[in-house]
Amino acid sequence: MNNRIPVLRGLFYPDLYTYKLRDFEYVPGVWKNTTMLLLLSGLIFGISAYFGIGSEFLSKNLTAISQENYELHKLLFMFGQIIWGLFYGAAMIFIPALFFWTLSDIGLKKFVTVQQFVLPILLLEKVIIIPLATTLGLIKTSSPFSLGVIAQYITGNNFIIYFFAAISLFKVWAIFIEFKYVKMLTGKKPGMVLLMVVGINLVFWLFSALFSFVQIEKIL
């Protein structure tokens, strides 16, 4: 019996693979897939940094530093974003997996597998944002896929704007995938599963808003 669950198939056919994942006693290839996804995350964050996305503070200081120092800062920023991409990927996989694992009697590897379906959705959003940012100059809070644009019309509070900017169509898609798999794996009531899934994502959105709210250029 083939116990492998391809990430893309598991992502687009959750109704089929929820049953397969539930019935498997052993899921092979978990750590290999995780490693590949983490490397992909670092690569995508590095490409984003290469195009200068998120490095607005460097441009502001362009006239205050030499060209050599600017290039050095740019290189360090790109390297830092690669590291951040690796950390981001690990957080998106392991933190929710550990959270769901502690609230159930299901093996950790199965929840890690679930998060392997979620991370590509989040990375896809970042990939799509790259051409929008480079061609249209859109910043994070102006993404057409998030609630950040609406929040800007409602309030001038930056923290609230960043919070709603963290909520996007891709995040809703990720929540749907998590809900489908966690519900089938744990057998818990839909309301409880929804509370678990939305709760952990709410924490991520709050932290995302907090980090965005803090002005990086004031720290450097």
H and E order:
HHHHHHHHHHH
Average pLDDT over all residues: 84
Distance between the termini: 54 Å
Question: Could you say which structural class the secondary elements and strand pairing correspond to?
Answer: mainly alpha
Descriptive keywords:
220 residues; mainly alpha; globular
Summarize the structure in words:
The chain has eleven helices and no strands. The mean pLDDT is 84. The protein has helices at residues 7-12, 14-23, 30-50, 56-60, 67-102, 108-136, 148-154, 158-165, 169-186, 190-213, 216-219. The chain is mainly α and 220 residues long.
Secondary structure elements and their pairing?
Layout: H1 7-12, H2 14-23, H3 30-50, H4 56-60, H5 67-102, H6 108-136, H7 148-154, H8 158-165, H9 169-186, H10 190-213, H11 216-219
What would you say about this model in short?
The protein has 220 residues and is an all-alpha fold. 76% of the residues lie in helices and 0% in strands.
